[in-house]
Amino acid sequence: VQLQASGGGLVQTGGSLRLSCTISGLTLDTYSIAWFRQAPGKEREGVSCLSSRHGGPFYADSVRGRFTISSDNAKNTVYLQMNMLKPEDSAVYFCAAVESMSIPTPRLLLKTSNMPRHFDYWGQGTLVTVSS
To answer: What is the pLDDT of residues 32-61, one digit of tens each?
Structure first.
């Protein structure tokens, strides 16, 4: 299984970026794919999750209404469209995968600090910097 995140960069406050997570070795039908982020000195936190088993999509409160997660199953790629970016969105963004049947609903996981521990496969991360 391999996940590769891309699309990060430097953007001004209020700007947009689209991250891509290209996945190989698993199918989106049976796996949940999530985006996480980690800012310097902070814990990794869940941002959004796509899961055909659990419904959704699901978002952290801090990004709901600004970020949109989507997938192109033909390309086995998951996207995170980020609009109205704020300096506090600056972080390294990771995509991760886990077999859907092994996790509780992402709606609850996104409210906890241990969501990353539930995910088995990780991409390498892409840096997003939002300037004020």
So the answer is: 999 999 999 999 999 999 998 998 899 999
Query: C-alpha dihedral over 42, 120, 125, 108, to 10 degrees?
Result: -50
Q: Judge whether 58 and 93 are in contact, CB under 8 Å.
A: no
Rounded distance, CA 132 to CA 58, Å? Answer: 27
Locate 131 and state its tokens: 């300037």
Alpha carbons 118 and 11: distance in angstroms, whole number? 31
Beta bridge partners of 97: 33, 121
What is the mean predicted confidence (pLDDT) over 108-130?
96
28/97 Cα distance (integer angstroms): 9
| 16, 79, 90, 91, 92 from 41: Cα distances, Å | 24, 26, 12, 10, 12
Q: Is 45 helix (H, G, I), strand (E, B) or coil?
A: strand
Assess contact for 35 and 19: CB atoms under 8 A.
yes
